[in-house]
Write a structure and sequence with these properties.
With 155 residues, this protein is α/β, with parallel strands linked by helices. It is 33% helix and 23% strand. Helix 1 packs parallel to helix 6 and helix 6 crosses helix 7. It is globular, with a radius of gyration of 14 Å. The mean pLDDT is 96.
Length: 155
Amino acid sequence: MKINIPGREELEIKNIVFDYNGTIAVDGKLIDNISKCINEFSNRLNFYVITADTYGSVETQLANTNCKIVKIPKNNQDISKLDFVKSLDSSTVLSVGNGRNDKLMLKETALGIAILQDEGLCSETLLSSDILVKSIFDVFAYLRDENRLIATLRN
């Protein structure tokens, strides 16, 4: 997915990395229709869900979803997430998260999206992001119509 945004270098997004809780799940339960949305784009983009799996439910919840689950240790989650996006070539990654442990990942990637849903948003993470959205479905709207993204980020 190539996106030309006036005033910025061209973005070439190949990978999307979602935090799990607070981003695509609430209290360990996948938000309705997330699997459908990921599966819609999984033929064009690589999807990863990175989590310490606080509720122990990620594998069951994502069983029918075309994504790779990346489990990280409960300690130093921010560093684990940062290291993971770097391993993908962070210049090709769109990342989405809400927690303090997402701030380094959002800052490092080509496009970092902070999300404010039911579990809230860490202000440090907001300041490390390129965009703030009110719903995970706004991220999928950007994938469906890149003009929305261009309108938000252009000079």
